[in-house]
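Field log, afternoon session.

UNIT: design team B
ACTIVITY: writing a sequence onto a fixed backbone
BACKBONE:
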């Protein structure tokens, strides 16, 4: 009877899927079926096999998820054998024709049309969420004139004074994440007043002359807008894609469209829109207040025809922790904000990138 699925197998497949639906990812608190972690479910005469797709195969929660999923499948009557394959190494498709940077698998840029919407906050928390899911992660601070990543990563006083054995700049590290920033090369009080060509050279060197080692993800925190730094990165770096950060009230669609055109014209997929400072929950009465209006990020994503990746609530704790170098994902991993960052990080993992890339490639031109 092998080779063709009979109606008993189809029914059992449905029951197994229902059982798996009840298994939640321990950090995302959502069903592993609903967030697309289960792939290739096959049921044949009581034998069940499926894949669980993780951020990386090194995910620390791997054993727990694997066991709970296997137990769920065994709970279905008639199931005799369950085989769970863990996968996490499928990389985002290499749409870029640029030379890859040796050792770095996925480079994702975090951008915005306007300043102050939370790009750096998103960059550091996304990086920490990916790292805590088992990925090796670095952050490149491409904001040369206003570098904020070191402060938010607890590396305010770090400088670069060492080289790696292969002669590259050794990036300072905290929260198990390597960071490169202009702030490590100039003193606080010195303003950086470089013109375009020098800026271009420095940014290129940050990618190629830093001892990043092996990285699953390099998150690039961009300055706001569509200036020289963005153009250099688009030209020189094999980006897997970019995410756009906005706040609900930022109905400056034109600015965001400009950013989107910049990426799309260069053949770089926009993986989606993140809405930051979406709402505020009163600590006394749990009331949800949409301080800046509601639904701006989703509207923007729909208008730009890219995925909406999620909303991050507003909370003074985000800034307070950032100011002392502890991203909220590290300082308060159970908070609503951290959960939002984990969910966004999950969507940026390879399988989801693939979905985003394919959708975007289908609509390659910008109106
Ligand atoms: N969800 C949030 N809740 C509360 N405060 C936040 C939140 N997100 C960001 N902030 C705070 O808002 C300020 C601006 O955020 P951030 O520096 O990340 O923005 P940015 O877009 O990188 O700014 P710039 O364009 O200047 O680089 C920071 O003080 C940060 O701590
Ligand atoms: Mg910033």
């Amino acid at each position: 009877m092998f080779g063709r699925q009979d109606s008993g197998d189809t029914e059992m497949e449905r029951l197994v899927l229902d059982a798996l639906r009840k298994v939640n990812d321990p950090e995302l608190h959502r069903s592993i079926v609903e967030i697309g972690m289960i792939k290739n479910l096959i049921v044949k005469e009581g034998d069940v096999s499926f894949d669980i797709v993780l951020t990386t195969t090194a995910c620390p929660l791997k054993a727990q998820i694997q066991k709970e999923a296997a137990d769920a499948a065994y709970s279905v009557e008639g199931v005799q054998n369950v085989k769970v394959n863990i996968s996490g190494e499928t990389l985002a498709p290499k749409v870029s024709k640029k030379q890859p940077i040796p050792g770095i698998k996925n480079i994702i840029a975090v951008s915005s049309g306007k300043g102050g919407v939370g790009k750096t906050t998103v960059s550091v928390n996304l990086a920490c969420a990916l790292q805590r899911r088992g990925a090796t992660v670095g952050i490149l601070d491409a904001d040369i004139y206003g570098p904020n990543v070191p402060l938010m990563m607890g590396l305010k006083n770090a400088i670069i004074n060492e080289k790696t054995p292969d002669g590259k700049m050794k990036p300072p590290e905290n929260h198990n994440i390597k960071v490169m920033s202009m702030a490590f090369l100039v003193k606080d009080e010195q303003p950086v007043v470089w013109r375009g060509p020098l800026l271009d050279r420095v940014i290129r060197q940050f990618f190629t002359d830093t001892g990043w080692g092996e990285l699953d993800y390099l998150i690039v925190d961009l300055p706001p807008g569509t200036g020289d730094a963005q153009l250099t990165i688009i030209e020189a770096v094999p980006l897997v894609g970019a995410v756009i950060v906005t706040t609900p009230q930022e109905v400056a669609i034109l600015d965001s469209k400009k950013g989107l055109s910049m990426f799309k014209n260069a053949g770089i997929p926009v993986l989606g829109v993140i809405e930051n400072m979406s709402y505020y929950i009163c600590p006394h009465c749990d009331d949800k207040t949409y301080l800046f209006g509601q639904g701006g990020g989703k509207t923007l994503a729909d208008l730009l025809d890219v995925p909406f990746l999620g909303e991050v609530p507003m909370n003074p704790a985000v800034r307070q922790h950032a100011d002392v170098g502890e991203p909220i994902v590290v300082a308060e991993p159970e908070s609503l904000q951290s959960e939002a960052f984990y969910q966004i990080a999950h969507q940026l993992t390879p399988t989801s990138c693939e979905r985003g890339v394919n959708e975007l490639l289908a609509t390659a031109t910008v109106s």
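LOG NOTE: The chain has a mean pLDDT of 84.
NEXT ACTIVITY: expression trials, pending approval
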